[in-house]
Amino acid sequence: MLHDILWRSNLHLAQSCLAHPFVQALGDGTLKADLFRAFVAQDAFFLRAFLKAYALALARSDETESITVFYELIGGVLEELKLHRTYAAELGIDLGSVVPNAACRAYTDFLLRTAWHTSLGETVAAMTPCMRLYAYLGGELVLKCSQQHPYRRWIETYSGEEFERLAGRLEALLDRVGADTREVRDSYRYALQCELDFFSGALCP
Amino acid sequence: MAAHDHALVRNAGPRWDEATRSPFLDALAAGSLAEDAFRRWLAQDYLFAKDLIAFQAVLLAKAPRDCHNLLVGGLTALDKEMAWFESHAVRLQVNLDIAPHSTCRRYTDFLMRCAYTQPSPVLLGVLFGVEASYLAAWSALLPSGPYAEFIERWSSAEFAKYVAALGELANRHPHEAAQEHFNEVLAHEREFWKMSWEG
Predict the structure, then answer these.
(1) How far is A157 from chain B (nearest CA, A)?
(2) Which of helix, strand or coil describes residue B3?
(3) CATH class of the domain whose range is B3-198
(4) B-chain residues within 8 Å CB-CB of A113?
(5) What is the pLDDT of residues A54-96, one digit of tens each?
(6) Is A144 an interface residue toward B (CB < 8 Å)?
(7) What ipTM was predicted for this assembly?
(8) What is the pTM of this model?
(9) Cα–Cα distances in Å, from A64 out to A58, A67, A168, B31?
(10) Which domains does chain A have, with CATH numbers?
(11) Is the separation of the CB atoms in A175 and A162 below 8 Å?
């Protein structure tokens, strides 16, 4: 299966994300509140671009099945944004005035360029890593997550069954609309690289 | 009107000099540039130009009638430039079928995202930024040394005329978001020269 080939051949990048100091600190609960607050703001900016990319992919789909999947995935992002809005209210973040840092801007520019300008297969390949990576990180971090963990809600969102289900839906779509081409491989790999850079950007807001 | 008299340039402040001066260009003009650096720049600039064609094509599709003649001419010139790059790549045995450097990629992703999401007046300012900064960077060099042909190409009167006409179009079609995007172009230009020099 294409999604599996792509995930396995880029596993080193996913593992680098898991080992990243930002993710490790988030996982063991030692992440400073300021850094988490800035990360949530950047992530909310990113998710708005992600939402648009799904919408563009939906518009480009011919099959009702694909349109249905994108519709569900858009619902998933809107739920995720609810979590961000809850954090924003609790932590005093103004989500309306977020200025993206360089890593966030590079990632969203890449996503939107891909969604507007390239094929449906490349677009899905650019979007799948984010879903699979966060499901992977959630699954790893939840193993050591106590009841009192300060970021428990965040970890539970990404380690939950619903998020895993959505990631699986997108991967199945990738298998259907994507082909094993240089462009698709490049799109997938670069998206994971952007994820890694995003965590680095979150360490120095 | 010379490019540096343009309001977009004036209002960019120190970003303009940062985008148009580089140790890479100084070494190139002095004839001391390492061949590796030149080859790297050649391949990445080619990949950049390839995406710039797409950017300009989308801009052309969105632009009002009074912009068509200049933008069509710009596309034709860019097509010739691609062929010129390809012939130099063959001569210097530079492989153009490579992945873009992340710096090049960030620049062209920015351009393409803007192409589809911004109105044509903003895109005119963006294209003016790309070309005017390039003209200024090369025009500051004396056409001598092994790369004199490159310096002459991008400091020519013909290129300067094209850039001035782009500046006039940007003036004729102002937009409140033009300066912000023009400044972003300059930041990407600065990074591109840095990447060419440092790898």
Answers:
(1) 30
(2) helix
(3) mainly alpha
(4) 108-109, 112-113, 116
(5) 999 999 999 999 999 999 999 999 999 998 999 899 988 888 8
(6) no
(7) 0.94
(8) 0.96
(9) 10, 5, 18, 61
(10) 2-203 (1.20.910.10)
(11) no
